[in-house]
Amino acid sequence: EKYKEGLTKTRTGFTSKINDLVAKYRKVDEDFFEELEDILLQADVGFDTVMELMDQLRYEVQRKNVKDTSTVQSVISEKLVEIYQAGEEEINELKFADDLTVILFVGVNGVGKTTTIAKLAHRLKNEGKSVLLAAGDTFRAGAIEQLDIWGQRVGVDVIKQSEGSDPAAVMYDAVRAAKSRGVDVLICDTAGRLQNKVNLMNELEKVYRVISREIPGAPHEVLLALDATTGQNALVQAQMFKEATDVTGIVLTKLDGTAKGGIVLAIRSKLNIPVKFVGLGEQMDDLQPFDPQKYVYGLFA
Ligand code: GDP
């Protein structure tokens, strides 16, 4: 249900165009393929994925001797899921440690990182886990306070220091606190300024090192928040963070705010990093585990 609701824009923008196309052409021919290609590209599915999909569609259409366009529709959804999954299963699951799990959040300012941390904390709490937050963005004015407010709303504590303090020191405190309190999950925020790639790399490296030194095997997840409404720009950001740290999963935020939901597929194929969650709104429970089947079904249902 959440999926259907959250994908309204993509459904009206992308899916309805495909439906119109199917109605318009009826017969599968080169013109049909070309227009389909345009629609997919406009939906930010990404050039490589579109080309792969078109190749496979042409092949399947020939192999199955598909003549009418309405049959192509089901082949499209089938292929979209296949391309997304690339033979892997359950890649959207978070990795948990037996005792303390540490999740590090990275991402550029404004993509929805803080909101996502709150949503995830809320979600984990509902699953019966105890959660602690670490206010590691000591750089952006108001970031600590914003996380604190969310912490109160969700009902989880926030470990923080004053603005401008060393994020690695915050992490050290937070890990210690998480251990002594015996919490299940520690979620760490980090700074999202992007003025300098070397700075970003150094800071993330330092934060990562402090966490992994205190807890072998941690952080168990490094989740990159990307804003779906920024389209291909999100891919550029992802590439940069991938070089800066060991990103284990992506949270695609604001998917409800774009008609170009195809970006999910582009991210998967371009970066080979699984999308673990999608943000489908501004409220606490608007975070959904990403499921390619449900996603594609949500588009065409
Ligand atoms: P940060 O700078 O990355 O920490 O971004 P914030 O968490 O402050 O979010 C920036 C804005 O995006 C806020 O107005 C959020 O309410 C909004 N936002 C975050 N996630 C979503 C989402 O999934 N859908 C929508 N529509 N808005 C979102």
Automatic annotation (TrEMBL):
User: What Gene Ontology terms describe what this protein does at the molecular function level?
Assistant: GTP binding; GTPase activity; signal recognition particle binding
Q: Which positions in this protein are listed as binding GTP?
A: 107-114, 189-193, 253-256
Which keywords fit this entry according to its UniProt record? Answer: Cell membrane, Cytoplasm, GTP-binding, Hydrolase, Membrane, Nucleotide-binding, Receptor
Please give, as recorded in its UniProt entry, the membrane topology of this protein.
Peripheral membrane protein
GO terms under cellular component: cytoplasm; plasma membrane
Q: Which GO terms describe its biological process?
A: SRP-dependent cotranslational protein targeting to membrane
Checking SUPFAM superfamilies in the record gives: Domain of the SRP/SRP receptor G-proteins, P-loop containing nucleoside triphosphate hydrolases
The catalysed reaction is:
GTP + H2O = GDP + phosphate + H(+)
Q: Which InterPro entries match?
A: AAA+_ATPase, P-loop_NTPase, Signal_recog_particl_SRP54_hlx, SR_rcpt_FtsY, SRP/SRP_N, SRP54_GTPase_dom, SRP54_N_sf
Top enzyme class: hydrolase
SMART domains attached to this UniProt entry: AAA, SRP54, SRP54_N
- In terms of superkingdom, the source organism counts as Bacteria
Family matches, as CDD domains: FtsY (cd17874)
Tell me where it resides: Cell membrane; Cytoplasm
Role, per record: Involved in targeting and insertion of nascent membrane proteins into the cytoplasmic membrane. Acts as a receptor for the complex formed by the signal recognition particle (SRP) and the ribosome-nascent chain (RNC).
How is this protein organized at the quaternary level?
A: Part of the signal recognition particle protein translocation system, which is composed of SRP and FtsY.
Instruction: Give the similarity note.
Output: Belongs to the GTP-binding SRP family. FtsY subfamily.
Report the protein name in the record.
Signal recognition particle receptor FtsY
Q: Which gene encodes it?
A: ftsY
